[in-house]
Here is the input.
Amino acid sequence: MKELVRPSRPAPGARVAVVAPSGPVAEERLQAGLDLLRGWDLDPFVAPHVLDRHRTLPHLAGSDTDRAADLQHAWCDPRVDVVLCARGGYGAQRLVDLLDWDAMAAAGPKVFIGFSDSTALHEAFAVRLGLVTLYGPVAAGIDFVKSARAQEHLRATLFAPETVRTLRSGGVPLAPGRARGVTLGGCLTLLSTGYGTPHSRAGARGGILLLEDVGEPPYGVDRALTQLLRTGWLDGVAGVALGSWDRCGPYEDLRPVLADRLGGLGVPVVEELGFGHCEGALTVPFGVAAVLDADEGTLTLDAPALR
Here is the structure.
């Protein structure tokens, strides 16, 4: 697996487009997130359809065409340096085939930030644009607007990425060892349901796979991991780094599932690396070469996430 192109870090006053590719957005939390960004000397603005509601599908922030248009216009606007998702939820998969990827490639690299449902977009940006993306807090996320740790880690990743090249585990390794590869991953459910589509990778061979999820019972996590195993998507993966599993059942019930499905890969597996759906979630880049050391409980990037 090859390293991807790293975008440039934003300069003071950089323009940040906030888009809503997935679920409906809470306006009060969005305003709090915008205020935080302004406090970082960034210039955020809200895309036209961010606060929309789909007429018949209440789990979506407006129509697919409007949400896709917001994302595409933001990406292709030469004045925009960063595109930041407003929230997760569901809906990003519905947009991927509506985007003009040739036009987005012609617009050149810039920073994309999102997590959870935006996993579908992270995969598409890797496959279609060959671009490093940031899996991190969203503008209207409660874990962002109320967490100093999440705020500071995202801020450091944007402005001083050389200072946050190592993530440290809060747990013990599920499988020991040390491996090198290029980071990829995101929300387990989105990765498993995206398999076989033209905007998702054919597999994780040679990669350090970062996985997390939310609201899935242990048998749901088992189902998704088994799907990736049966399809061969996990063949040749170099190592696995696990984040949060919020509302995925008691962890003492989930951990044996993770050990059973991932332990047989014969690669290092580290848990509790602090990214995903959790308080104080850290920002992790996809597309950067890194070393996973399960015995030390660390994931260390070879280079900063951004240039």
Q: What stands out?
A: The mean pLDDT is 97. The longest strand covers residues 178-187.
